[in-house]
Specification:
The chain is mainly α. The chain contains five helices and no strands. The radius of gyration is 17 Å and the shape is globular.
């Protein structure tokens, strides 16, 4: 339970760093390209950074190509939950449309956490995915980095 609480806190820290990275990249790229291209490139760069921060820092696991390929599902999940929440809050609950995105974003955090945990944390033979020589995942060399 304590380890999971630590993961949740680290997940929040990574989310804050990721948001700052995204916005900083966007501001740096925007003068050099159209806003939507800057937005897309900043989004992709911050997602790559988020992947590595979440594998190494949040979940303390090793990155793999499979995890890297599946990681964008966390962003799709976040977008779907936030969009549905935004619609429900504004349309059905009458929430101010300037506040609703923030509420929807907070509501999406647990969903994003669960999906990212499922993708990034191996469920192998032991608590940390024992390797071929019985080494835990932390001691094995990274397959991606």
């Amino acid at each position: 339970m304590r380890d999971q609480l630590g993961q949740i806190i680290r997940f929040g820290v990574v989310g804050g760093i990721n948001t700052g990275t995204f916005f900083g990249c966007y501001l740096l790229l925007h003068p050099w390209m159209p806003y939507f291209a800057a937005y897309t490139l900043a989004f992709l760069l911050s997602m790559v950074g988020s992947f590595f921060l979440n594998t190494y820092f949040t979940y303390r696991t090793r990155p793999t190509w499979k995890k890297f390929a599946l990681f964008p599902l966390t962003n799709v999940t976040n977008y779907v939950v936030q969009s549905a929440g935004l619609y429900a809050l504004v349309t059905w609950a009458g929430t101010d449309d300037r506040i609703a995105p923030l509420v929807a974003a907070v509501v999406a955090i647990p969903f994003t956490y669960v999906i990212s945990r499922r993708i990034l944390v191996s469920r192998g033979p032991g608590p940390r995915d024992a390797g071929p020589e019985g080494e835990t995942e932390e001691r094995q060399p990274s397959r991606l980095a």
